[in-house]
User: What shape does this take?
Amino acid sequence: MESSSQPKVGPPGGDCTLVIMAKAPKPGTVKTRLAHCLPPPAVTALYRCLLDDTMTLAQSVGNVEVAIMCPASDVDDLAHLAGDSVRVVAQTGEGLAAGLNSVFAHFAATGQQRIIAFNSDSPHLPASVLQRAFEALATCDVVIGPTHDGGYYLVGAKATHPGLFNGDGMGTSSALETLLGRVRAQGLSVRLADPFYDIDVASDLIRLDEELRLSPPRAPRTAAWLAQWRQVVEQLRLGEL
Assistant: This one.
C-alpha cells in the first residue's frame, strides 16, 4: 500500500480497530447494482480501486489497527491484495449481518475497546470523520454513520451486542432506522457521525466523479478509474445508459 497524502490523525490510546467490510473483487459478486451500466471487468476494477483507496484512508488514521473482515472464501485473495500491513479475518456465516456480528465478536474478544466496522466503498470520506467516530465511542456505546439513502457506512461499538444485526432490512432504505431501533431497545447510548454516501448506483458514481475531478488525491486510484471510464460516466450523467 502507498502511504496516504493525508497526515496521520487519530484518537488517543491504542485500543481502536477499524475493520473494513470487504469481498474479493470477483465478477458478479461486487457492486452488482452497477452491472447494468458498466461492463463486468469495469465493475470489478472499480471495486478494487475503491477498496485500495479505502485501505489507504484507514491507514491514515493514527493509533488505529486496520483489519479486513470478509467471507472465508475470500481470505486468500484479500490477503494478497492487502499485503502485510492489514490483517484479514474470515467472518463466521454468510452475508453482511453475519459479517458485522463477526467483527464485534472477534475484535472485542481480543481486548480492543473501540471497534468500528467501515464499508469498502467510501474512500472519499474525510479521515477526520473516522477519528471523531472513535472519539465518540469514548462516551457512548454505539456510533453510526448514516448514508443519505437510509443505510449506514459505519457502525462502531465497545462490545458485542447480540441481536443488533440480522437479515431484516440489511441493505435497504430502512437499515438505519432498524438498527437505531434495536440499539435503543437494548438501552444503549448512540451517537451519529456525519451523513455521507457510498457507491451503490449510477447517481453515486456521478457524484463521486464530480468530487474527485476537483480533488483526485482524496481517492487517487478511484479517480484514475473514473478518468479511464469518463466517457461512460458522462453518458450516465446525460441519462444515455
